């Protein structure tokens, strides 16, 4: 029998069913955050990369090193991609990271890699915007809700062509780093961590929203590289994302990526192995 389209008599009771968390994080490998942070003592800056407004750059981080994405001149949002250095088909998996850690990441959360690898790529070890929390609109910073601004959606919605969307920026940067045609490199570009971006979803319709980032010069988001990484950051054409993106209208600022090598790795740390599932997928 086909159910009707109207609300059933027990609609209130159905809505009142308590939610169940999908994943219990106490079963994940423990994060020794104090051990990671102690490894900063005596570290040395070994590289830095400047990202110009409306552009992207790649950078390399060896396993066991730290990197920071830094606001240096004004409020600016950055879109972050990560790849395993030895295999760019292993990349950051925003959907699974979101399911494990929530829609916005901060200190102690990990960035997990795509299937079939599913292992930690980087652990967030410091966040100067942790004070922001969640505002009255449900907004928070460093989201993995949004995908990245891209020229295909821009074309769909406006009919125009814009070549400095974060997807295009990341594609050009990765093409240069890997020596690939940009049309091949863009196949490795994936959903991002929106560093410093302040976002949420509306209560009534669940629509994705953005608002001006609270980031200030000197703020940073810090990571520990669990494996050898290639990273890329795009300085989003939306600037602080308080008005619009995918245009030259918003004021934009450069960003900086700093890489630090600790004097010694965190006590007891070793790079994580790829996921041990045997990939039989059934009898």
What is the topological layout?
Layout: H1 11-15, H2 33-38, E1 44-51, E2 56-61, E3 66-71, E4 78-84, E5 87-91, H3 94-101, E6 110-112, E7 120-127, E8 140-143, H4 151-158, H5 166-178, H6 182-185, E9 193-201, E10 208-211, E11 220-225, E12 229-235, E13 255-261
Antiparallel strand pairs: 1-13, 2-12, 3-11, 3-13, 4-5, 4-9, 4-12, 6-7, 7-11, 8-9, 9-10
Can you describe what's shown?
The protein has helices at residues 11-15, 33-38, 94-101, 151-158, 166-178, 182-185, and strands at residues 44-51, 56-61, 66-71, 78-84, 87-91, 110-112, 120-127, 140-143, 193-201, 208-211, 220-225, 229-235, 255-261. Strands 2, 4, 5, 8, 9, 10 and 12 form a seven-stranded antiparallel sheet that branches. Strands 1-13-3-11-7-6 form a six-stranded antiparallel sheet. It has 283 residues and is an alpha+beta fold. 16% of the residues lie in helices and 28% in strands. It has one domain (46-261). A hairpin with a 7-residue loop joins strand 6 and strand 7 (120-127).
Task: Put the structure in a nutshell.
It contains 6 helices and 13 strands.
C-alpha Rg, in Å? 20 Å
Assembly state of the chains shown: single chain
Shape from CA axes?
Answer: globular
The residue ranges in which pLDDT falls below 50 over 5 or more consecutive positions are none
Order of helices and strands: HHEEEEEHEEEHHHEEEEE
Q: Classify the secondary structure makeup into a structural class.
A: alpha+beta
Number of strands: 13
The helix content is: 10-25%
**What's the structural domain tally?**
1
Q: Total number of helical segments?
A: 6
- Beta content comes to 25-35%
Largest sheet: 7 strands, antiparallel
Give the N-terminus to C-terminus distance in angstroms. 35 Å
């Amino acid at each position: 029998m086909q159910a009707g389209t109207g609300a059933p008599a027990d609609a209130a009771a159905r809505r009142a069913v308590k939610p169940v968390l999908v994943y219990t994080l106490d079963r994940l490998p423990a994060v020794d955050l104090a051990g990671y942070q102690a490894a900063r003592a005596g570290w040395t800056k070994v590289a830095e990369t400047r990202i110009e407004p409306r552009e992207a750059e790649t950078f390399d981080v060896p396993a066991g090193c730290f990197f920071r994405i830094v606001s240096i001149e004004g409020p600016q949002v950055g879109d972050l991609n990560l790849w395993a250095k030895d295999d760019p088909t292993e990349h950051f998996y925003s959907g699974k990271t979101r399911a494990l850690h929530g829609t916005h990441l901060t200190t102690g959360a990990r960035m997990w890699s795509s299937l079939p690898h599913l292992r930690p790529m980087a652990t967030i070890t410091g966040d100067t915007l942790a004070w922001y929390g969640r505002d009255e609109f449900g907004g928070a910073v460093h989201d993995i809700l949004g995908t990245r601004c891209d020229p295909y959606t821009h074309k769909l919605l406006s009919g125009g062509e814009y070549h400095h969307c974060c997807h295009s920026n990341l594609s050009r940067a990765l093409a240069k780093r890997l020596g690939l045609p940009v049309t091949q490199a863009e196949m490795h570009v994936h959903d991002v961590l929106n560093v410093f971006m302040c976002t949420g979803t509306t209560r009534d319709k669940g629509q994705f929203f953005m608002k001006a980032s609270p980031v200030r010069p000197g703020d940073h988001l810090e990571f520990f590289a669990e494996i050898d990484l290639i990273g890329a950051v795009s300085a989003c054409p939306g600037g602080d994302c308080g008005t619009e993106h995918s245009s030259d209208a918003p004021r934009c600022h450069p960003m900086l990526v700093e890489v630090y090598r600790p004097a010694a790795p965190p006590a007891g740390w070793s790079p994580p192995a790829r996921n041990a599932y045997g990939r039989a997928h059934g009898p």
